[in-house]
Amino acid sequence: MENDDNGGDSKFTLIRMPGTIDGDGPIDDTNSSNEELPAEKRAGWDNKVQYILAQIGFAVGLGNVWRFPYLCQKNGGGAFLIPYSIMLILEGVPLFYLEIAIGQRKRRGSVGVWNLIHPYLGGVGIASMVVCFLIAVYYNMIIAWALFYFFNSFQAVLPWSVCPNITIGNISTVVAECDITSSTSYFWYRNTLDISPSIEQPESVVWRMVLVLAAAWLIVFIGTFKGIKSSGKIIYFSATFPYVVLIAYFFRGITLDGATDGLAYMFTPDMSRLADPNVWRDAATQIFFSLGLGFGGVIAYSSYNDVKNNCRRDALFVSIVNCATSMFASVVIFCILGFKAHHRSQHCITTHTDELNHFMNMLLPNGSSIGLATQENFTDTYRIVNATVYEMNATSTDHMDMAQIWTDNRMTDCSIELELKEAVSGPGLAFIAFTEAMIHMPGGPFWSIMFFAMLINLGLGSMFGTLEGIITPLRDLGLSIRKEIVVAILCLLSFAVGTLFTLNSGMYILGIFDTYAGTVPLLLIAFFETIGVVYVYGYDKFAEDLAYMIGDSGPGLYWKYTWKYISPACMIVLFITSTITLFVTPPQYDAYNLETGVDEKTDYPGWSLALIVFLILLSIIWIPVVALLRYCGKNENCFVRAQPSSIKRTLTKTHFRRGVKRDFDCRPAANVRVNFNTIY
């Protein structure tokens, strides 16, 4: 029997005994900051650089490249950096530091950490795991899209550079849908997604998307099946390569025509936008999600650190790198968008110069006094004509027909500023706007390969951290299955669910996951994390832990007031405003019109609204459910009977607090009920 009891951890199920943690007897934990954690067979990082790169790879993702530039463009250009920096200081850095510190101190994943702090908080860790799963399912579909474009970039002529032709009889003509939109838009919606006109028309699976999705999950499996021992090696490349590409794009971008116009448009501040509360909400939300708060990945990564690591320095460094990456990526993006806008402006002027001159000669009695429109003065001439037409219409009803003809013509001033006002983000930026710029760049295929390789690596860095937010808690819960098998099952299950996004209506379904699966739940998770550490575990005890780990006098007033008051208040405000927006504004999606080639706002059908509610509740429901089950279980005198003959020593409070599972057997006796109150 003795030999049996001294076996590996996987042989035992650790239970909580009444009177140890669940409240039947107080636990004196005041000196926890000076305790050495038990020597566990827990993997660790090869070196500090590997850990920092892993955290950067997790924090710096696709949102830094295609979300942050859009928010700058939408919310006042350079003025947006003011609320962004303020929210970074008040919300982002404190919460990021808190997650790193608690994971490093407790050396557990998200579930283990919150169970150790208080069993009623166990649902917070489970909620994090569910959110990680839901996000991983759709996030890897985006990586699959990037893979598809990456493979298609190895051609002398990029396939999205020209519209396809169809032959009717003996006449070859351009496909009408492509002709009215653009070749890049057509390739995205037709060759890639083969999109349907509505979410209610799923039609069939797009098999080329199934294949690239399978390839994406295979890459993720290879990178994670050995845990940090495999992902830690890959992270050297996946975390650094995007910076190489961004630097290369920067030096290439600033030499392109229109680059300065793009940068001027981005950084010219519109200070009036700061009065809009939505700008501040966008800043707070972007900071929150770009750092990966609430996922559990930050906690999981830091749990493999040495307990005496300076986690405060790590938190500050990674936060600053993440913020700086967003700003640098915005500079690169707007250099390229400025070039695209310049090219489209020139094309627009060339197309409409003769048309503008014809209008002036035919309809304006004083057209000759305005002067002939040329490519050099087209924009100014258009604005003079436009003002003249509407001035004449305002002063006399005789010119109403002329004004109507001018309006129906739909001509624009073809200015670069007008082109840059078309704010795009997400897939629209990467797969339509950016690909259009590549067509006109010298060496387009090379820059296309580099760009999509960067997107793939950015996505993989975030995917590794997201999956670690699932795998580490499962292992900490005592799951005895080999890690390779756990990762394989997780990848196969995620791939199976992800095939939903390979349907013709898959992009619409992915939009639901992207918008609702992680927004409100993560805010709630991070709020309970902060409350759990500061008020349940106790700020004073946490401060002692920090002093013990870092070797100084502990956190200062900045950390104290942000953790105790400011950050929780920010999350409550964000949660309330997000919930109000969700219920007040009817959820809509952009449905692709096959005839006009443009996206049209469309209300979600009833079943989609049910899916939205389901995705939100699927994660956050665990927070009250686990707390309620454990509370009810304790009050109903639920118990587990340990086998006396198998216990080798008295189980003290320290054993349960530290999570030691060896040298004793706490398997429940036959026919004895086990509930959430007693199981780790």
Structure description:
The structure is a single chain. With 680 residues, this protein is an all-alpha fold. It has 29 helices and 4 strands. The protein has helices spanning 2-5, 48-59, 62-66, 68-74, 81-106, 110-117, 122-152, 176-180, 183-192, 207-224, 228-238, 241-253, 259-267, 277-290, 297-302, 311-363, 367-370, 378-395, 400-409, 416-420, 427-440, 444-476, 483-498, 506-516, 519-550, 557-584, 606-620, 622-635, 653-658, and strands at 165-168, 171-174, 588-592, 599-603. The strands form 2 sheets. A two-stranded antiparallel ribbon has the order 1-2. It has a two-stranded antiparallel sheet with strand order 3-4. Helix 7 packs across helix 10 (207-224), helix 18 (378-395) packs antiparallel against helix 19 (400-409) and helix 25 (519-550) runs parallel beside helix 27. The longest helix is centred in the middle third of the chain and has 53 residues, at 311-363. The chain is globular, with a radius of gyration of 29 Å. The chain starts with a helix and ends in a 22-residue tail after the last helix. Mean pLDDT is 81; it is low at 1-39 and 639-680.
Descriptive terms for the model:
globular, mainly alpha, single chain
Task: Please outline the major beta sheet.
Answer: 2 strands, antiparallel
How much of the sequence lies in strands comes to under 5%
List low-pLDDT spans.
Answer: 1-39, 639-680
- The total count of strands amounts to 4
Estimate the helix proportion, in percent.
55-70%
What is the C-alpha radius of gyration, as a whole number of Å? 29 Å
Which structural class do you get from the secondary structure elements?
Answer: mainly alpha
Note the overall shape. globular
Strand order of the largest sheet: 1-2
Give the N-terminus to C-terminus distance in angstroms. 24 Å
Number of contiguous helices: 29
Task: Estimate the mean pLDDT confidence.
Answer: 81
